[in-house]
Amino acid sequence: MRIVFFGTPDFATPSLRALLREGYQVVGVVTQPDRPQGRSRSELVAPAVKVEALAAHLPVLQPTRPLGDVFLAGLKRLEPDLGVVVAYGHILRAEVLALPHQGMINVHASLLPRWRGAAPIQHAILAGEAETGVSIMQMDAGLDSGPVLHKVATPIGPDETAGELALRLAELGAGALVDALSLLTGGFAHPTPQDPAGVTLAPKIDRDSARIDWQRDAAALARQVRAFDPAPGAWTTLSAAPLKLFGAVPTQDAGEPGLVLAAGDRLVVGCGAGALAVREVQPAGRTRLSVADWTRGRGISAGARLA
After folding, report:
1. Cα 100 to chain center, whole Å?
2. Cβ atoms < 10 Å from Cβ of 19
3. Is 220 helix (H, G, I), strand (E, B) or coil?
């Protein structure tokens, strides 16, 4: 079976490694273009999947968008039987989905039909769900709407961040992908249509959705901090300057929303109900640091106000 692999970030690399380790014939990789990084934006950095592909001496395609005659011609030259998509970052059009004669399958980081969309890990944490998982889905023209071949569930830890959960789901997804391919090649796969009644959506996270509203209850804000750790970082403002918060837990303290109740090893801030105790912060233009180090340097104390 000739497989073409679509993927971009670190989350996708365990699946690519698993295919190669299990002896599947990966004939090419499609990933996003190298991106400028650093303050000067002068250095181009390759996606994690490209680095992995080049190390395995695989052909790499990097279209700005996966469409057009030139891209399709390059894909056809790979003569794929099956496409595997893991966090590629673009919606694939019908002509791309139809090119491999066995279709395309996707490794999605949720238990479909829950959390269709770009940010399933973050939204599962935001919603306070106790469980999530990975689904191996046959792709169609809809948004994560195709029939499911295989699912694996896992609990979400009470203090688990999106970054920590993503690492676990990446490895879980790699194993689930290999299992699904075994079912397909053995003729034992039974694609199950998704129940429309169970659909929830996980749209892309933007900066506004990461901003903290201190009128909300502390438990919800603690989930928000976990959901946006490490990126983009749940944030508030202090003296009109942005401040990202990490490592937050709800407490039974009480005070006005946004009012700093204590500042020492932890920053304790009043919420609409309860208070939020924060262990780490990241001021604008600086690296992430402990609250103890930050408060010592700034002299922030109880009575300050976050907005």
Report:
1. 27
2. 21
3. helix
Cα(76)–Cα(128) distance, integer angstroms: 44
Residue closest to 238 by CA, chosen among 212, 264, 274, 209 = 212
User: Which tens digits make up the pLDDT trace of 62-101?
Assistant: 999 999 999 999 999 999 999 999 999 999 999 999 999 9
Q: What is the DSSP letter of 112?
A: T
Contact, 103 vs 189, CB < 8 A?
no
CA-CA distance, 151 to 189, in Å (whole number)?
A: 12
Pick the closest to residue 58 from 106, 103, 114, 7 (CA basis). Answer: 7
User: What pTM was estimated for this model as a whole?
Assistant: 0.94
pLDDT digits over 150-197, tens only? 999 999 999 999 999 999 999 999 999 999 999 999 999 999 999 999
Quick count: other Cβ atoms within 10 Å of Cβ 186? Answer: 8
Q: How many residues does the chain have?
A: 307
Yes or no: say if 121 and 168 are a contact pair by the CB < 8 Å rule.
no
Which range (11-25, 40-54, 117-131, 259-273) has the least confidence? 40-54
Placement of tokens 């005070």 in the chain:
255
For residue 227, which phi and psi values (nearest 5 degrees)?
-65, -30
Indicate the SS3 state at residue 63.
coil
Query: How crowded is residue 178: how many other Cβ atoms within 10 Å of its Cβ?
Result: 18
Query: Closest by alpha carbon to 132, among 181, 200, 210?
Result: 200
State which H helix or E strand residue 167 sits in.
helix 162-186
CA distance 272 to 77: 59
CA distance to 18, 171, 181, 186, per residue, from 175 (Å): 7, 7, 10, 17
Q: How far is CA 27 from CA 19, 60, 100, 216, 240, in A?
A: 11, 9, 12, 50, 52
Q: Tell me the pLDDT of the chain averaged across its residues.
A: 95
Taking only the tens place, the pLDDT of each residue in 3-24 is 999 999 999 999 999 999 999 9
Alpha-carbon span 122 to 161, nearest angstrom = 9
